[in-house]
Amino acid sequence: MAATASPPSTRDLILKVALHRFAEHGYDGTSLNDIAAEVGIRRPSLLHHFPSKEALYREAFSASLKEWYALVDEAIWEPRDGWAQVDRVLTASFRFFMENPDFVRVVRREALEGGSRLGYELGVALQPLLARASGFFEKEMNAGRFRRQDPIQLMVTGYGALLSYFSDLPFLEALLGSDPLDPAVLGARLEHFRSLFRAALEP
């Protein structure tokens, strides 16, 4: 008999609801009372888990960031060289952004609001990942497996391409006349994303 998944804890449910509300309404437009009501608890119970709205916002944001980190770590474990590793990281990141639209929208809100809360911290948090990836690209370029590129610019381009696609879905739907999240459309977008980077990198 297959084991059934255990239901999410109250804390996890609070984080999920909070991230969605922050994505939909922004930090200032979200209240703890609304989050508590959607979860089915009272505000004092929510404050038992998170002492303030800012603490909840920070934790909801960082939990998604940790998940992204974990996916990238898994992607770079094997293989360790050449296009195959880049391809795994690009695909994992694409799928993470696709499956976490609330996180994408919160990141976009942070960018539009000048990083007033966590945008700067996101940049600082990603610096070790950027440095690690930059070292990998330099190693591959020096070995002749990749053509010479500016690694930082390459990664900023990739990040922007992912973020803009998944944060601008209503605009893209109107522009393209099709659902940007349709599986066939997503498959074509991922293939283009991978092909673009492969063409830029391989000699």
Brief summary:
The protein is an all-alpha fold and 203 residues long.
Structural description of this entry:
The N and C termini lie far apart (52 Å). Helix content is 75%, strand content 0%. The chain has helices spanning 10-25, 32-39, 43-49, 53-75, 82-99, 101-112, 119-142, 151-167, 169-176, 183-201. The chain is mainly α.
List its salient traits.
203 residues, mainly alpha, 10 helices
Give me the secondary-structure topology.
Blueprint (H helix, E strand, L loop, with lengths): L9 H16 L6 H8 L3 H7 L3 H23 L6 H18 L1 H12 L6 H24 L8 H17 L1 H8 L6 H19 L2
The biggest beta sheet is recorded as:
none
What's the end-to-end separation, in Å? 52 Å
> What is the residue-averaged pLDDT?
87
Low-confidence stretches: none
Quaternary assembly: single chain
Q: Would you tell me the structural class of the helices and strands?
A: mainly alpha
Principal-axis shape equals globular
Q: What's the total helix number?
A: 10
Beta strand count: 0
How much helicity do the residues have?
over 70%
Percent of residues in β-strands:
under 5%
The radius of gyration is: 19 Å
**H/E topology pattern:** HHHHHHHHHH
